Amino acid sequence: MRQAVSAYKQGIFWLLVLMLVFAPLFRAGNMPAPLLVLEFLSLVLLVLLFWRPSELAQFKTGQRFLLAGILLLPLLMLFPLPAALWQQLPGREAFAEIFRIIGEPKGDDWRTVSLVPNATEAALWALLPPLAVFVATINQPRTNILRLVYVVFGIAVFQSVLSLMQYGGGVGSFLYVPNEYGIHAAAGTYLNKDHLAGFLEMVFPVILGLLAATVGQHRFDSVRGSSWRKRLNFLTTVKGHQASIYAIVGILVVVCLVFTRSRAGIALSMLGLFITLIVFARRLGGSNVYGTYGTVIAVIVVLTAEIGLAPILDRFSQDPMEDSRWSIYETSLRGAVENFPVGTGPGTYPEIYPYYQSPDIDAFVNHAHNDYLEWIFNGGLLALVLILAGLGLYVYGWRRLW
Q1: Which one of 252, 269, 286 terminates a domain?
Q2: Could you tell me if residue 210 is inside a domain?
Q3: Mean pLDDT over residues 30-34, rounded?
Q4: Does 280 map to a domain?
Q5: What secondary structure letter does DSSP report for 31?
Q6: Disulfide check for 347: which of 22, 123, 191, 246 has CB 3.0–4.6 Å away?
């Protein structure tokens, strides 16, 4: 029976590996066909998970409510309402007039809460891959979860090396994946440099955390000799080799972030570096194995890195008043307020935002460049509650670990 259970878990594990490796290869799911493949694989994954419900881990109450809320949000937005009631919802008056002008079909007395139901339905299907991966991952043994983290590190290394080679080879290099959105920047296989930077800036703190934990797990008091000789000897151990690999991967990720020339990516990597210092400087692996000197050295290293990255960030910076993102934030916030607390519907931002877009921006805006703001724009009060609940669970998890 144990072997059957092990084979069952391993099958799910390899399906997770397949999804993780496949996801970034074709513009990270920003094309219809790759996204359809990911949605199909997520359905297979969910069928395997619920094939043996007894094997599913018990979700905590907070996790259940959060997952249910995420799925419930687009479903509620697809709920039909009488046209008279629909027009009473916040922000619907102007769109009701637009529908009348374009010739709304006669007898259409019902409308979904979402302003663009097809986009909301597509958003519902797009939720399946991340939710399925989350449920499947927490049902894996710790060893498999760590292996999945290593897979993500491998993807980060591949994307970093590819993007650096793209940058070095120039625009005409065959290494550039045909991409009209990211051809002038190192973007790997992602849609643009900001998407690649977003992935790397999330991986970077995890690398630093494992580096700190690996160093902290070593017991220096069990080795004879001077304290600094013990620390040098640590590099010859298995844990020392792991720490060296983490350090090399971390440096590679930072270098790649710099060459993406993404201001947000560089700024958030600096923030991640600073937060990692706060979390791990005094608690490397549960105890400060390097003592006071180790803490001071950690502070010096991080501050040096921060100071070194600051001029790079400034080099790519512009006057915030000249940056179109501030105008996008302002108009997106206005749209979110006008449609609050209902929202326009998940996935509707590209279709609805042009109504609020400033005439100064002569480009198509498909995202708010602020996920939280876009969620509230689309989902209203329920999205805001889900954001706060997710942050609360995250902080609670850290409090338990700390």
Answers
A1: 269
A2: yes
A3: 85
A4: no
A5: S
A6: 123
